[in-house]
Specification:
Two copies of one chain form a homodimer.
Chain A lengths: L6 E2 L10 E2 L2 H6 L10 E4 L3 E7 L7 E2 L3 E5 L19 H12 L3 E9 L2 E19 L5 E9 L14 E2 L31 H9 L11 E3 L2 E3 L1 E4 L16 E4 L1 H8 L4 E2 L5 E2 L15 H10 L10
Parallel strand pairs in A: 4-7
Antiparallel strand pairs in A: 1-10, 2-8, 3-4, 5-6, 6-9, 7-8, 8-9, 11-12, 13-14, 15-16
Keywords (chains A, B): Endonuclease, Hydrolase, Nuclease
Pfam families (chains A, B): HNH_2, SAD_SRA
GO molecular function, one term (chains A, B): endonuclease activity
């Protein structure tokens, strides 16, 4: 029996609010293709759907935003977190959605007037992920889900579920792999500099503090300022020189995704070498530590 | 006399719609600090302001969007384009705004009922730039300006013009360098994959077609798909395999900014080497040519 294809995106005929009596119905309808597990995913492709059962102490369901906790490390009997989680298995698949931009179908278990049932909530994107110490004191992986309010289905697949193309025969995959993005990004992610981000680039003359490369373009040199402890919720890092690094786009991606970390003394972790330093740019150890704790995930034998 | 500091952003007391009798008044008010030139810029920092005089055959003023033509190559007598423009001088400064995200103040010369005057239009961002063959048959550089509808001034500088910090003494530059961005980008620009962008990454196994690097993260491998002829207006390139390259973020930036090009046979221009090819990934020469014509700007002696 051939492994069934991944199905990302909406299921034909099932709109947000649709109710199901139990997990079996949810499974039959194709909304969540696991009868017990809370996450349905295809290895290497990402998570298709999740079910929020309300049983996990670390989840925060805020409606349009869900802070979802990963799997693993729980006692089957007590349902309590008894060990650290790792970014493997289903957790890795959830993180994969961050990179691919593919949505997850979200369903909530609802209890009203003594009756339990399942209500499909619609599509969410997984915006970001990080590690935390959960209420139990163990490490848990957290995923920020944001409700998708716009979703275009390609004309050829209107109303149908979307399936992954057969990747080994078609050079030109069918458009029904996933709905076309509402806005196709065609240019760089160009972010307005703050005084701080501009300053760090000038101090390092646009050289990457990790690899030293300096990207030159006809429009001038190009580098990116990475906030070590991210700005905004939930990390609330400051926009200050002590909390930024001047990086090339490649090392910015790797840093944000936790491929490497930086020790308090500037030694690189997960990569060889030292951070390039500048006497007028003092990076605060507290932010490097925050990044190590919440993002850096050492990979056995895997150096980029 | 010290060189005056750059002034980006709004000028205190001057709102969009404010009228000036002539260029001298515009200059005195600090809105456009050149009495004759259409662009006011500081070398290496970007363009602060422009004046649209309506005299240039290639400009398109659509109100909220302006397709602005660069300077150079014009006959002083006939005001006609008589030679190719290059991405140097004021043109390079306009391109610099694309990288830094700093806004330009835009003023229009208006003729109504036989009277000419200048009307300040407000702040625009320079979203992108490219080269074209102008109406004259010569190469011109084009800049897409988009009206900025949101602009926050930092509390410390409410209502004041913003000035660049003294970069050689302060480690922590004053917040008044520029208004804080409404939305500070703290994470990657993660774009939803289309079938095509996903396919090209899978075919090349996330290896950059220019340098071969493969970025590994705990969430999986990461690469970017660059559309050779950009999607959307004004380039209208298709979202097809023939029009994409699998690149690392660094080479994606360099490609989009015109630091290098690709010859029809896959030879790299402006860089050493050849594009990595895959037998199931045929890149169309027409798109490579489009990119060379509209973006690639050979730099004398400057290899990234």
């Amino acid at each position: 029996m051939a492994k069934s294809a991944s199905v990302f995106g909406p299921v034909q005929g099932i709109a947000p609010g649709h109710e199901f009596a139990n997990r079996l119905e949810l499974w039959s309808a194709g909304v969540h293709r696991q009868t017990q597990a809370g996450i349905s995913a295809r290895q290497g492709e990402g998570a298709e759907s999740i079910v929020l059962s309300g049983g996990y102490e670390d989840d925060e369901d805020l409606g349009a935003v869900i802070i979802y906790t990963g799997r693993g490390g729980r006692s089957a009997e007590s349902q309590q977190q008894v060990a650290d989680q790792t970014l493997t298995g289903a957790n890795r698949e959830l993180a994969c959605n961050v990179l691919s931009g593919l949505p997850v179908r979200v369903t909530r278990k609802v209890t009203e007037a003594g009756r339990s049932f399942y209500r499909y909530a619609g599509l969410y994107r997984i915006a970001s992920y990080w590690a935390e110490t959960g209420k139990s004191g163990h490490r848990v992986w957290r995923f920020r889900l944001e409700e998708l309010t716009e979703w275009e289905t390609p004309p050829e697949a209107t109303g149908s579920a979307t399936t992954a193309p057969d990747l080994f025969t078609a050079q030109e995959p069918g458009p029904a792999y996933g709905p076309a993005p509402r806005r196709l990004a065609t240019t760089l992610r160009l972010v307005r500099d703050t005084a701080v981000t501009r300053q760090v680039k000038l101090l390092h003359d646009y050289h990457c503090q990790v690899c030293g490369v300096r990207l030159a373009s006809p429009a001038g040199p190009y580098a990116e300022a990475a906030h070590i402890r991210p700005l905004g919720a939930p990390h609330h890092g400051p926009d200050t020189l002590a909390n930024v690094l001047c990086l090339c786009p490649n090392h910015h991606v790797l840093f944000d995704l936790g491929s490497f970390g930086v020790a308090d003394d500037g030694t690189l972790l997960g990569l060889a070498g030292q951070l390039r330093q500048h006497r007028q740019h003092l990076v605060a150890a507290e932010f490097l530590a925050y990044h190590r704790v919440h993002f850096y995930e050492p990979q056995a034998g895997e150096l980029p």
